[in-house]
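From the pipeline queue, job 12 of 40. The input is one protein chain; the requested action is below.

Action: predict structure.
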Amino acid sequence: QVQLVESGGGLVQAGGSLRLSCVASIDRFSTITMAWFRQAPGKQREPVATITDIGNTIYADSVKGRFTSSRDNAKSTMYLQINSLKVEDTAVYYCNKLASRLPWGPGTQVTVSS
């Protein structure tokens, strides 16, 4: 059964850090380019970080230098280290394939207070 489960979110003060995790129960995870997305209240879901099968990463301009994506293919898990959090990072964060999206997981809520 295909499943994406995100975790690690929480309520943090601006300037703080979080580490998000995503366990992806999908075939051949190690060969798939994955991505982190986020959806802020009243806004469309947007990609913030992409990570290829071998760990090459691309980041949205708004998060460059603060977000770091990584993956452990042996555990079918990917991570998003978020540093220097800003209020505007408040959103629900999701993981998914970059292309040919799978059903979305529940996401994990990140709330940043000023």
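Job complete. The first strand starts at residue 3 and ends at 7.
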